[in-house]
Backbone:
C-alpha cells in the first residue's frame, strides 16, 4: 500500500518513520507551500492538497492537517477514491464525524481515526489485566503539554483548537475503551479566545463506573493513567506514547505491586511502535476488507462525549 500525507506538521515525520518500520511506503507529501513538502524528501511533493489526491500512485491518505481541516479533506480524499487514516480527532463534532462516515460508505473506502496508542502492545496488555482487578470503580487519566507557539492552529477556535480536541481526546477514548459509553458528562475549563487551554472532565458510565481526566496546553508536561477496581488497580506511567522499549505498567493487588514488562517479539521494538502497528492494521483492513479496531461507531461515541464535555464546560464558564 502506498500512502500520501496531507500536511507537514510535527506528526508527519512520525508517520514516515513508522511506515518504514512497518515495511510500508510513503510516496508523497502535500502542503500549501511546496518547499515545506519537499523538505521531507519523499518521491513526490505537492504544493496543493488536491494535487496529491489526483496522484494515481497514492492508494491511501494520512490526513495530518489541523483538526479544522479533517472533515473537508478526508471527504475529498474518499471521493477521490483513496482510503483515509485521519489523525485524531476524526471530526470537530458529531456532525462532521457523521459526514465523514457517510462519505466513506458512499465511496466504498476505509476511513479510520488515528489513535496510535490503541495499537501499542501496552494497551492490549493493560486490557488483558483489567479482569485481575475486580469490578472497575474509577478511571483517572491526564495528558498535559505546553511550549507551542501561540500561532499554532491549536489555539484557534476556527481550526478545531483546544486542549480537549487536541490531547484530552486520548483520555476520553481511553476511558470509553474500558467502560463503554458514558451516561453523564461534566467539565470545567479555562477558556481563552474561545479555546479551552485547560479542561478537567468527569464521566459516569453504566455499572457505577466513573472517570476523571485533565488535559492542558498550559501546564507542565505530564502523562499517566490509572484504573481502579474492587480487587486492585493498574498504573500506567506512559499510556499514550511510551518513550522507551520495553514498556512497563504496574498491577497492584493486596498492596503488592507487580511490574508488567511489555515486550513482543513480533512487533518492532521502537518508540514509534504504536504508529507502525496502526499503519499495519489499517493496511491489513484494506487488503482483507475487514472492519478496523477503531470503528465508525467508536469515533462517533468519542465525538459525542467530547461535545457533551465542551458544552458542560462552556455552560459553567458562562
Residues:
Amino acid at each position: 500500500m502506498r500512502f500520501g500525507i496531507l500536511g507537514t506538521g510535527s506528526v508527519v515525520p512520525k508517520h514516515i518513520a513508522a511506515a518504514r518500520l512497518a515495511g510500508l511506503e510513503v510516496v508523497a507529501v502535500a502542503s500549501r507551500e511546496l518547499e515545506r513538502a519537499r523538505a521531507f524528501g519523499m518521491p513526490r511533493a505537492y504544493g496543493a492538497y488536491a494535487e496529491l489526491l489526483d496522484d494515481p500512485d497514492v492508494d491511501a491518505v494520512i490526513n495530518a492537517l489541523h483538526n479544522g481541516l479533517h472533515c473537508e479533506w478526508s471527504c475529498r480524499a474518499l471521493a477521490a477514491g483513496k482510503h483515509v487514516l485521519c489523525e485524531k480527532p476524526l471530526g470537530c463534532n458529531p456532525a462532521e464525524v457523521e459526514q465523514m462516515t457517510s462519505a466513506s460508505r458512499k465511496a466504498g473506502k476505509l476511513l479510520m481515526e488515528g489513535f496510535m496508542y490503541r495499537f501499542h502492545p501496552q494497551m492490549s496488555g493493560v486490557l488483558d489485566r483489567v479482569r485481575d482487578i475486580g469490578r472497575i470503580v474509577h478511571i483517572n487519566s491526564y495528558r498535559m503539554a505546553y511550549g507551542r507557539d501561540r500561532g499554532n492552529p491549536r489555539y484557534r477556535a476556527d481550526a478545531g483548537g483546544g486542549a480537549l480536541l487536541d490531547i484530552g481526546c486520548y483520555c476520553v477514548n481511553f476511558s470509553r475503551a474500558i467502560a463503554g459509553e458514558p451516561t453523564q458528562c461534566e467539565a470545567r475549563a479555562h477558556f481563552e479566545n474561545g479555546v479551552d487551554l485547560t479542561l478537567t472532565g468527569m464521566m459516569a458510565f453504566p455499572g457505577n463506573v466513573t472517570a476523571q481526566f485533565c488535559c492542558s496546553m498550559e501546564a507542565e508536561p505530564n502523562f499517566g493513567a490509572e484504573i481502579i477496581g474492587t480487587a486492585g488497580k493498574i498504573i500506567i506511567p506512559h499510556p499514550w506514547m511510551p518513550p522507551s522499549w520495553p514498556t512497563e505498567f504496574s498491577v497492584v493487588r493486596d498492596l503488592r505491586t507487580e511490574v508488567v514488562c511489555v515486550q513482543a517479539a513480533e512487533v518492532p521494538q521502537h518508540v514509534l511502535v504504536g504508529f507502525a502497528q496502526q499503519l499495519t492494521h489499517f493496511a491489513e483492513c484494506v487488503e482483507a476488507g475487514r472492519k478496523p479496531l477503531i470503528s465508525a461507531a467508536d469515533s462517533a461515541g468519542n465525538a459525542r462525549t467530547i461535545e457533551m464535555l465542551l458544552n458542560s464546560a462552556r455552560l459553567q464558564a458562562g
Q: What stands out?
A: The first helix runs from residue 12 to 22.
